[in-house]
Design a protein that fits this description.
Blueprint: H1 3-25, H2 31-49, H3 51-61, H4 66-115
């Protein structure tokens, strides 16, 4: 793995960490949600400091270059995060629909009570 790629990984990790800390500080992101991004950025730091990991997995999986493994790793982790967020949004959407239905029933009952 080239020095340029290792340097890029380290700089990208620091940038992500700085962005996450800034978002948490401004209350634009919850601390619990930031854990994923901190760990993801930390994994880039580990790959930058220990390129042997990327070489090992790229040879194990048959990639011609460790950078291809890093691309696959990044895409895979982000796809998992996207799936998790999609599931969370679906759950929140169900909760909102349930609340809307409950509110509509309460308003309907209140309206009926006033007519009697």
């Amino acid at each position: 793995m080239s020095v340029v790629l290792r340097l890029f990984l380290a700089i990208a990790a620091v940038a992500v960490l700085a962005l996450v800390v800034r978002k948490v500080h401004k209350s634009e992101m919850q601390a619990g949600d930031s854990v994923f991004w901190v760990l993801f950025a930390g994994s880039f730091v580990v790959l930058a400091l220990f390129p042997q990991i990327a070489f090992f997995f790229s040879s194990l999986l048959g990639f011609s270059s460790p950078s291809n493994f890093i691309f696959l790793y990044t895409i895979g982790v982000l796809m998992l995060q996207c799936f998790q967020l999609t599931a969370k949004v679906a759950h929140q959407r169900m909760k909102v629909n349930r609340l809307i239905q409950e509110l509509a029933l309460r308003e309907h009952d209140c309206g009926r009570g006033e007519e009697s």
